[in-house]
Amino acid sequence: MMFIKSNDDNFEVNFQELLGRGKMDIAHVSGIVGGIISEIQEKKNSALKEHIAKFDNWTPQSDEDLNISTESMSKAYDILEPKLKASLHLAYDRIKAYHEKQKPKSWFDTEDNGTILGQKVTPVDSAGLYIPGGKAAYPSSLLMNVIPAQVAGVENIVVCTPTPDNEPNELLLAACHLCGVSKVYKVGGASAIAAMAYGTETIPKVDVITGPGNIFVATAKKMVFGEVNIDMIAGPSEIGILADDSANANHLAIDLLSQAEHDEMASSILITPSQKLADTVKIEIENWLLKLPRQEIARKSIEERGAIIVTADMDEAVKLMNDIAPEHLEVATLSPFELLPFIKHAGAIFLGHNTPEAIGDYVAGPNHTLPTGGTAKFYSPLGVENFMKKSSIISFSHAAINEIGDECALIANTEGLTAHEQSVRVRLNK
């Protein structure tokens, strides 16, 4: 773990290393992913079956084998343990309520001269949702992707998820039933992204692709962007924590590890002006590591990509965290809302000592599909708007076009576009 002070001689070098944490060697896998995409475009289902045999260790015998039946989803839901079923329903209700508030509205403005200007907001026709399913399955990610698409009003929702050894995750199937999803396919990786982007005999082409994934999924999303829209290009998970002396070191340690246990490439960064807190958190991390079932993954993440930075004051800590722009940011201070105006860049901000990042992963309500690797400087969390598009509305009366038509025609003439100019002038003073 990197343990540094902001006034160390080599601080800038170490800090630049943290800023580069999210860089994925996309160029290294682009050739492989490009080949996969080309095969899907050319051979469609046939290529899908070959890729599943190669990467997921089973061979579909027919096109129908690519589907997950609604009956199996219903059965998985029915046999859920009651408390877990209730928990999923709680998460669903809270996520839906939050995203309902995000839904943008169409609007119109009318000027005195009869001009009408406005915006029409329309859902996309279809959305493809990628849900990881390799080392672990994430039903929560299904809720976070399906619900905003449904709130937006998307009519056709397609879900792709890998099923190693042809064994779909039962909890994921139950979540599909809860959400009312019917088109779910046993396809993962770059193959799934290509299938949803271009369509096959079984999987329909979509307009938007969302959802997290590994470097092959991220690269595929980048390569099909333009053919379809995408949410973002996300890398390994990460957490940043701003803390002062009022924070509980034991709590901060396990919060840092809550991201480290995701995978070895996850980043966990604490920035604090308190040397005492920093020292104690380091000890508590080791104590917690010994108790974690995923200790090996978490330890490698913490050792190779974890950091504790001690600053001169909280102002400096906030500045450094804004430079990092973490996916998740916990503000564990005595008065967290006082710092909020100065926090510019983070995917999701968790305020106060009783708001661990994990509460946002499951039941708080806001989306947990978030920008990583510093891209929170220009990306937003997944939301309803990812599944909607805007059209401008323009209507001019005769009086209105006569009022500003000359100015329009002059600009068109200056640009040398005569037809543009004349299309306005023929309507003036008649």
Characterize the structure shown.
It contains 17 helices and 14 strands. Helices cover 45% and strands 16% of the residues. It has three domains: 2-23 and 235-364, Rossmann fold, CATH 3.40.50.1980; 26-113 and 123-230, Rossmann fold (3-Layer(aba) Sandwich); 396-425, no CATH class. α4 crosses α7. The protein is globular, with a radius of gyration of 25 Å. The chain is of the alpha/beta class. β4 (126-130), α6 (139-152) and β5 form a beta-alpha-beta unit.
Protein topology:
Layout: E1 2-5, H1 11-19, H2 26-43, H3 45-55, H4 70-78, H5 82-100, E2 107-110, E3 116-123, E4 126-130, H6 139-152, E5 156-160, H7 170-179, E6 183-185, H8 189-198, E7 208-210, H9 215-224, E8 229-230, E9 238-243, H10 249-260, E10 267-272, H11 275-289, H12 295-305, E11 306-310, H13 314-324, E12 328-332, H14 336-339, E13 348-351, H15 357-362, E14 388-395, H16 398-414, H17 418-425
Parallel strand pairs: 1-11, 4-5, 4-7, 5-6, 7-8, 9-10, 9-12, 10-11, 12-13
Antiparallel strand pairs: 2-3, 3-14
Provide the structure class: alpha/beta
Under the CATH scheme, which architecture of the largest domain would be assigned? 3-Layer(aba) Sandwich
The side-by-side strand order for the widest beta sheet comes to: 1-11-10-9-12-13
Question: Uncertain runs with pLDDT below 50, 5 residues or more?
Answer: none
Count, helices = 17
What's the CATH topology label of the largest domain? Rossmann fold
Q: Provide the gyration radius in Å.
A: 25 Å
- Head-to-tail CA distance between termini: 77 Å
Strand content: 15-25%
Largest sheet: 6 strands, parallel
Helix-residue proportion: 40-55%
Shape: globular
Number of domains: 3
Mean pLDDT: 96
Any idea of the CATH class of the largest domain?
A: Alpha Beta
CATH H level, superfamily name of the largest domain: Nitrogenase molybdenum iron protein domain
Number-wise, the strands total: 14
